Amino acid sequence: MKPGVRALGIAESVRGDANRDRSTLAGAVVRADRVTDGFAYRSCTVGGTDATDAVVALLEDLERPDVRYVLLGAIAPAWYNLFDLSRIEAAADRPVIAVTFEASDGLESGLRDAFSDAALEQRLETYRSLPERRALSIHGETVYVRHVGCDAETAAEVVRAFTPEGGRPEPIRVAKVAARAGEAYLDSLE
Known about the structure:
Blueprint: E1 6-13, E2 22-31, E3 36-45, H1 51-62, E4 67-72, H2 77-80, H3 85-92, E5 96-100, H4 108-114, H5 117-129, E6 134-138, E7 141-148, H6 152-161, H7 170-189
Parallel strand pairs: 1-4, 4-5
Antiparallel strand pairs: 1-2, 2-3, 5-7, 6-7
Helix pairs in contact: 1-3, 4-5
């Protein structure tokens, strides 16, 4: 991949405080050669259903047609506030790749424990609409990838190209650092 190819990494940070009702989402534009050249922030409701809308708004805020890929560092940030990858891909008009970092039997059991009735059904519908999760070995670590707007081979190529070391793609790593910094800043204002 050419060094100037850009990806937008999106990650979240939420303070462990039980009274916290918002989670900070950060977007970081990072080139394949690891140069960072843009940030944007949004928030979503902890336990809500607005994370996808927040990502779509973040994409609009950035106005970056040069970004070729969107990399999400989760599928269920902010306590099961699920991302709808197809909606994000339609808004972004470019491939969307969700990368997670832990083995899992899935979220259905956790969703059933946390929600009921319409809230549960809405989340299950979104969760079940997600593409299949695939394990990907990179630098001796295993990550789990879901993708829309590209095939599995392209998704693997993108994740590997943006992961110069370790198992975390650089756009997601930088976005996570930015989200934590944004969260710390917001905390300092309280």
